[in-house]
Amino acid sequence: MNAAGFPDFIAFKAKGGGHQVIGVEVKISGLLSREEKEKCVWLLDKGIFSSVWIAKQGKKRGEIEYVDFKDKYGV
To answer: 22 with 11: CB under 8 angstroms?
Structure first.
């Protein structure tokens, strides 16, 4: 595989009478590149995703932490 899609996963969450579409990008360190940040901002601005989560390795073995892109980068 030469290039992977962005984000890595798409999740759907029921909310009230509708739903949310969430993009999930997996990063071991939890840090995004400048290009990935720009893509996240664009996807959120266009309303393609309700939110983008960054999945990263937790402190305990096998633990996964999810960080909201808006909270981490102040968008």
So the answer is: yes
